Amino acid sequence: MRFPVLVAALSAALLMSACASRVDLPTRNTLPAVRMQSSAIAPGNGGELITATALEPGDILLTSVATLTSFSIRLGSFAPVSHAVLYLGNGRIAEAVGSGVRARGLDEVIAEEQMVVAFRVPGLDAAHVERMRAWALSKVDTPYNTVGVMLNAPFVLNRRMCELPLVPSPVSNFCMTGMATVQLGASRNDQFFCSQFVLEAYNQAGAPITTADPRWVSPADLLHMREGDVPSIPATQPLRYVGHLKYNPMPVITADGATSR
């Protein structure tokens, strides 16, 4: 197969599978390679189960639950997570949900969700944590950014055109920025959906995770900012995997009607 045809076929496949990619240039000892975004997140894929004692204030928890809304978000973003939560320390979290921003116990999150996986932003210090906690608690009862969520869903799909393989990073970033300006311009930044709230908390703490507008970022984008993955939206530094607080995959219905995990 000729190289242009191969590139076209690979581009079509990646677009259909909604996978961002990165081209690693050749070195003296390696050939060029295309790395693809990964949604693998089960503990069996190099992960581990942990307890809450392993968490530190500022950790980001990504979750999923067996509801139609969660399934729709995961299907639309091609990722196994649908919600983002900020850990405040002392067994407390803050999150933006349909009823608005709220603070509650970590144990409630673990009890409700099917999967809870923790990531850490390197370099966070006590001053960052205190500013983050103070800002997050000051936003309790702030309304949910419903318009932002509704606009973000088609943006996640449409921006895949900017992520085709072999597209230079400056071109890809320009494409995504232009698309976001057009599609997300009506979204408010004084109300929050889950991942927007987490990123804004980091901004307010003086430790931004990304230079992108928080309204652009979904829970799936946070997942792909982890070490070893290919982010759709660049991070200032990769997030470190801490572990799974809970992993309870949905049962799969087999051909004979039985269920398995």
UniProtKB/TrEMBL annotation:
It comes from the Bacteria. SUPFAM superfamilies: Cysteine proteinases. The keyword Nucleus does not apply. Gene3D superfamilies: endopeptidase domain like (from Nostoc punctiforme). Residues 1-20 form the signal peptide. Keywords: Signal. InterPro entries: Papain-like_cys_pep_sf. The keyword RNA-binding does not apply. NCBIfam families: PRK11479.1. This is YaeF family permuted papain-like enzyme. It comes from Variovorax rhizosphaerae.
